[in-house]
Amino acid sequence: MLRISNNVILADWEIHIEQIRAQGSGGQNVNKVASAVHLRFDIQRSTLPPFYKERLLELSDQRITRDGVIVIKAQKHRTLELNKEDALARLKALIKSAAAEQKARRPTRPSRNAKRKRVDSKTRKGKTKALRGKVKL
């Protein structure tokens, strides 16, 4: 059971966790121990509220497939338990980030003083560069 918020809870049957062998270096142990985790979560079949489902499907995240399945691979830690916790924490963070409201951007303009400072610094820099030229004899 994974608690996303006070009123959103995911049951164990909704999250499919599969053990796999980790990639990369790790010596002889990496070849015989399946300590990495593939977590799969089907957005459409889940019990998430429709608001969460819509937001998750709108995300352009590479972890979300075209079919609406979230796939998270966790292999940061050496033990299976820590990798499971890491994968579940990343799933929870992804769902929470989809629910967060984006702050509306208000376009602003630079002040007159800021424009003047920018132009002054450009002319100063230009004069400095002009002095670097060849000396006429």
Automatic annotation (TrEMBL):
<feature type="domain" description="Prokaryotic-type class I peptide chain release factors">
    <location>
        <begin position="21"/>
        <end position="37"/>
    </location>
</feature>
<protein>
    <submittedName>
        <fullName>Ribosome-associated protein</fullName>
    </submittedName>
</protein>
<feature type="compositionally biased region" description="Basic residues">
    <location>
        <begin position="105"/>
        <end position="137"/>
    </location>
</feature>
<dbReference type="Pfam" id="PF00472">
    <property type="entry name" value="RF-1"/>
</dbReference>
<dbReference type="InterPro" id="IPR000352">
    <property type="entry name" value="Pep_chain_release_fac_I"/>
</dbReference>
<comment type="similarity">
    <text>Belongs to the prokaryotic/mitochondrial release factor family.</text>
</comment>
<dbReference type="GO" id="GO:0004045">
    <property type="term" value="F:peptidyl-tRNA hydrolase activity"/>
</dbReference>
<dbReference type="InterPro" id="IPR045853">
    <property type="entry name" value="Pep_chain_release_fac_I_sf"/>
</dbReference>
<dbReference type="GO" id="GO:0003747">
    <property type="term" value="F:translation release factor activity"/>
</dbReference>
<dbReference type="GO" id="GO:0043022">
    <property type="term" value="F:ribosome binding"/>
</dbReference>
<dbReference type="GO" id="GO:0072344">
    <property type="term" value="P:rescue of stalled ribosome"/>
</dbReference>
<feature type="region of interest" description="Disordered">
    <location>
        <begin position="99"/>
        <end position="137"/>
    </location>
</feature>
